[in-house]
């Protein structure tokens, strides 16, 4: 935590520099929890992009001085750090959020189709290759990734220049996680009641039988009390969950809204100048920014 906010990447880099080899097991499936809202996802992505840039500054001298082969150093620097954490966010943000909209206001400027179409499609296909089932979602993925490039670009700059937000550590709120102590207490009570062994009567003389019956009666009373307490706690937890299901008010993300208006105005100018491909891209990208800026994406899960 004191060194970086991405301790898993830090361990991987240092192990790689020590000559450790890694094997990727493609058949292992691990369940994961999703962020409960777009705000939580946004903070998670900020940490995941500012942390690597912060780590890059720390590890670059060690990478240069390490004894691993030169091609491994280049692979580590380019693919592990720069390509996905610096180059792609910078490319997406500057091209699709700044340069392309502004060219609609300058008639002399013209971008070739391969810049706004082929390059992003190739990048998206390369990202989707590990998961072929995601191929039908390549267009929504591209639009959403361009929208997230604002957050990623900001995080990349803060991590690279070690600004204040690069050290921010906020635990991502996940959907489906037990969030209240009452839920945990109720689960513990139910487990304890279910696993407690039932008392056994020892048949023998009458006095021993009476003593065993008295102990059993006392245990039954305790079980009833614990069961009543567990039911009370469970009902309280259900009431808390019911009240917490109320959707919180939507947030307003000013950067995304500003870019949405810029893109929509640029789309209007593109339509007036009969630039069909530019118009459709700017329109859909502007609508995506507008939806995200008004926090209308996804469900707020408590």
From TrEMBL:
Query: Which Pfam families does this one have?
Result: Glyco_trans_2_3
GO CC terms on record? Golgi membrane
GO molecular function term, any single one: glycosyltransferase activity
Which terms are listed as keywords in the entry? Answer: Cell wall biogenesis/degradation, Glycosyltransferase, Golgi apparatus, Membrane, Transferase, Transmembrane, Transmembrane helix
Localization per Swiss-Prot or TrEMBL: Golgi apparatus membrane
Membrane-crossing segments per the record = 86-105, 278-297
Principal subcellular localization:
Golgi
| GO BP annotations listed | cell wall organization
Q: Where is the Glycosyltransferase 2-like domain?
A: 2-116
InterPro entries tied to this protein: Glyco_trans_2-like, Nucleotide-diphossugar_trans
Please give, as recorded in its UniProt entry, the membrane topology of this protein.
Multi-pass membrane protein
Stated name of the protein: Glycosyltransferase 2-like domain-containing protein
Could you tell me which species this protein originates from? Aegilops tauschii subsp. strangulata
Q: What lineage does UniProt assign to this protein's organism?
A: Eukaryota, Viridiplantae, Streptophyta, Embryophyta, Tracheophyta
């Amino acid at each position: 935590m004191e060194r970086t906010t991405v301790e898993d990447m830090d361990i991987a880099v240092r192990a790689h520099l020590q000559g450790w080899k890694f094997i990727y097991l493609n058949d292992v499936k691990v369940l994961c929890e999703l962020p409960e809202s777009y705000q939580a996802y946004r903070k998670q992505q900020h940490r995941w992009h500012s942390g690597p840039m912060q780590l890059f500054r720390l590890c670059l001298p060690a990478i240069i001085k390490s004894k691993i082969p030169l091609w491994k150093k280049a692979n580590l620097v380019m693919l592990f750090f720069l390509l996905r954490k610096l180059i792609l966010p910078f490319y997406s943000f500057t091209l699709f959020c700044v340069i392309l909209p502004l060219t609609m206001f300058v008639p002399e400027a013209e971008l070739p189709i391969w810049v706004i179409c082929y390059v992003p499609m190739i990048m998206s296909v390369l990202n989707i290759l590990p998961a072929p089932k995601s191929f039908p979602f390549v267009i929504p993925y591209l639009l959403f990734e361009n929208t997230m490039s604002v957050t990623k670009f900001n995080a990349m700059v803060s991590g690279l220049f070690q600004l204040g937000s690069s050290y921010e550590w906020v635990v991502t709120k996940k959907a489906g996680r037990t969030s209240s102590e009452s839920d945990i207490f109720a689960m513990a009570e139910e487990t304890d009641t279910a696993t407690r062994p039932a008392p056994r009567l020892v048949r023998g003389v009458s006095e021993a039988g009476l003593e065993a019956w008295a102990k059993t009666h006392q245990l039954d009373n305790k079980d009833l009390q614990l069961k009543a307490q567990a039911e009370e706690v469970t009902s309280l937890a259900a009431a808390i969950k019911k009240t917490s299901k109320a959707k919180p008010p939507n947030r307003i993300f000013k950067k995304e809204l500003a870019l949405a208006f810029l893109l929509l105005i640029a789309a209007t100018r593109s339509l007036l100048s009969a630039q069909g491909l530019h118009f459709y891209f700017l329109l859909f990208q502007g609508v995506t920014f507008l939806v995200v800026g008004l926090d209308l994406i996804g469900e707020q899960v408590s």
